[in-house]
Amino acid sequence: MAGLRVGVATVDFTPAAGLPLMGNFRDDYAARGMHDPLKAKAMVFADSGNAKVAILAVDVCMIDRENVAMMRRAIGSECNVRPENVLIHAVHTHSAPATNGRFVFGEDIEPYRPDIEAFLTKAASAVRLADANLVEATLGVGRATEDRLPFNRRLRRKDGATQMNWEALLPGFDPDEIAGVWGPVDPEVVCLTIEREGRPAAAVVNFGLHAAVLAGDNWLYGADFPGALAEALSRTVGGEFTCLFLNGCCGNVNHVDYRDPKQGRGYQAVERIGYMLGAAAHQAVNARVPCQADCVAASSEKVTLARLKIGEAQRNRCRKILDEARANPPQGQVDGLPDAFFAEIRLEMARKQDEPDLAEVMAVRIGDVALVGLPGEIFCEFAMRIKEQSPATFTLVSGLSNDAIGYIPTPESFGQGGYESTVGSTFYEGDAGARLVTSAVAQLNRLFS
Description:
Elements: E1 5-12, E2 21-22, E3 25-26, E4 33-34, E5 39-46, E6 52-58, H1 65-78, E7 86-90, E8 96-97, H2 113-131, E9 135-136, E10 138-145, E11 151-152, E12 154-157, E13 162-164, E14 178-181, E15 188-196, E16 199-207, E17 220-221, H3 224-237, E18 242-247, E19 253-254, H4 267-286, E20 289-291, E21 296-305, H5 312-327, E22 333-334, H6 339-352, E23 357-366, E24 369-373, E25 377-378, H7 380-389, E26 394-398, E27 407-408, H8 413-416, H9 432-447
Parallel strand pairs: 4-17, 6-7, 16-18, 24-26, 25-27
Antiparallel strand pairs: 1-5, 1-9, 2-8, 3-22, 5-6, 10-15, 10-20, 11-19, 12-13, 12-14, 15-16, 21-23, 23-24
């Protein structure tokens, strides 16, 4: 492991109040203040030949490819890290400012564009600071299990229909009508620990769970449970310790137990989830085993995805829905998104439906350790598949990395119904997830050959 150097940095990029929050539909998105700071955390890994890769995790809901390109350009102009070797990850907190206009329906995002670019550029500066702080380090990787927090949110009703588990928080929900769930969760917590002078100095914590504890009744900036996780782990490990959270493939996974929905939201739930996950992460840090870190490399591919088609009859229905919504705008908070949102998205989809899309899949090698960055909100089954097929001794898989391309459900979920497989929540044909997995595994095989 001689020759490995690692730099770690944290930047508080919390903007002034007033920017629109992203992740929940309502008629007023403007943040009223801050509950806890929004941070960008970066790690730069350099081997003895000075090959470098960087990971940047940002406390926002999502970052699309245009903003990723802008941030990479800023990084490349400021430090000696190749822009294409930077994995940019959105931790998916729903209590951070919007970075694009997709999930602030009815809000004109353009007046906020300078503010968005300013805070994302500030977040990107964490890579420069980390690169300037490279010191010799060793790596260890440990695993733990946390199966009390994640729930597959796609409930299978006794009548065969799909109901989302957050509906347990709404009047009229009957838990006796639920027969089970449509899919698994991935309870594995993987921690890549950076050691300096014989003690843990930082860790990458990989776990798949929607950071959507704070919902549309929240008006404050905050990092959601990843912020509480970082606080918990730094307290238990002690000293100057940085926790960088890489959210896993959490497209169909959240924290809501439909049998006990009262525990589901608010800052008390944020702390409960963050501290429980912190305990599991601490267990993984303590269980770490040394891993070889003699080389550093990165790879990325653009994967072709076929877009879903929107027929003429559906386009006409969408236009009618939008006309009605403009005449009678939706009011208040909505769990999920209103019909008019989907109508607008589907009309946008129709304009591009004959053009295949190109989505970035990124793979990173740090010695024995593999990291995969997938775009969008991927179902957990795909991360589990990558980990099973990976040639690396240890594999961390993150969603919401380097782009925001909507939900990537399993093929069978299209026939089951539910929010994630609704056209407008997902944009691609049912083989999209398999294509992303194939690319990730092929890149890993090349990196580890």
